[in-house]
Structure formats: C-alpha cells, structure tokens
Amino acid sequence: MNVQKPRTRIQKKNRRAILDAALDVFSAHGFRGATLDRIAEAAGLSKPNLLYYFPSKEAIHVALLSQLMDTWLDPLRELDPGGEPVAELLGYVRRKLQMSRDFPRESRLFANEILQGAPRIGPALETELKDLVDEKAAVIRGWVEAGRIAPVDPHHLIFSVWALTQHYADFDVQVRAVLGAARDPLDEAERFLDTLFARLVTP
User: Fold this and answer.
1) What is the rounded CA–CA span in Å between residue 203 and residue 155?
2) pTM higher than 0.90, yes or no?
C-alpha cells in the first residue's frame, strides 16, 4: 500500500501559486485559450516545475473546479428550513451577490465551464448540485403550500437568483461600462434585488 507523503511547505506554496495563476488565466481566456506556458509564467514557475505538480492543463482545471463547487453551493446550503421564509430567501440572494463581489474569477471560470457543456464537472452538476437544489426547492415548495410565501416555481426562483447575481461577476465589464466608474454596481444591485425578490415572494 502506497502512503502519499505530506506536502512540504514549498510544495504547498507552489501548488497554491499555480492554482491562483490558473484561476486568472482560465477566467480571462477560457479553457481553450489558456496554456500551460501562460499559467507557469503567471505563477512565476518554469513549465517543467509546473508539470511536477500537475500533469496537464486539464488536471489544473479540474482541481480548480472541484474546489469551487463546494464554495459555490455554500450559500444555498445555508437556506434554513426553520427560518422566516422571506428573510431566508433574501439572505440567499445577498449571499450569492456577495460571491460575485468576492469571487469574480471563480464565477467566470464556472460560467466558462458551463458554456463549454460542463465536460469536466457534468457528473457533479447531475449529483451534488442537483441533489442540493432539489432539497432546497422542496423547502421552498413547502413554504408556498403553507402560504408563507407567494406562489413561485422553486427551481426557477433559484435559477433567477443565480442569473441576477452572477451577472455582476460574469458581465462586470459591461455593467461598469453602462453605469460608469463613479457608481458601485453591487451596492446598487443589493438594494434593487432586495426590493425585486421581496415583492416576488412576499405573500
């Protein structure tokens, strides 16, 4: 039985540098436009050194997506079936919007993977993501049936939250071009989305 040796401090540092550099490169150029040379240069490493840690561009991409999936699902996991429904839903919207502020590169990485047909995370979408969405959709459906929120389709409500929050990360350049440099899109978006979703779900 082979026991993997723990990584040294330098190995951990280099691995983090590679993943952070790759996140920049993949989010800017997509999977097809990214190259190992670009990633190595951004990480401050030689290409042979990079290949010591990851055997291929795809291996780096998969590592990033695997880490991202957990982070991506956390805001929905926090939706509390025992909480006040309107407050829980508005809290979910705010958490997703905060992710667009804190993790814009990750959002674009995820969007690029989906636009390519999810070749590397398709199984996770059909299992981990689907299971969680179905679980929370059942909670929302229960709130509707109890008259605690207005009648809405639970799955499409969740899709709408994704679309209206992730837009501010994935289309940041377009949003800022329209609004101008003096305005903070995400501060304005939070106020707008609070009003929009409160009106949508308040019974």
Assistant:
1) 18
2) no
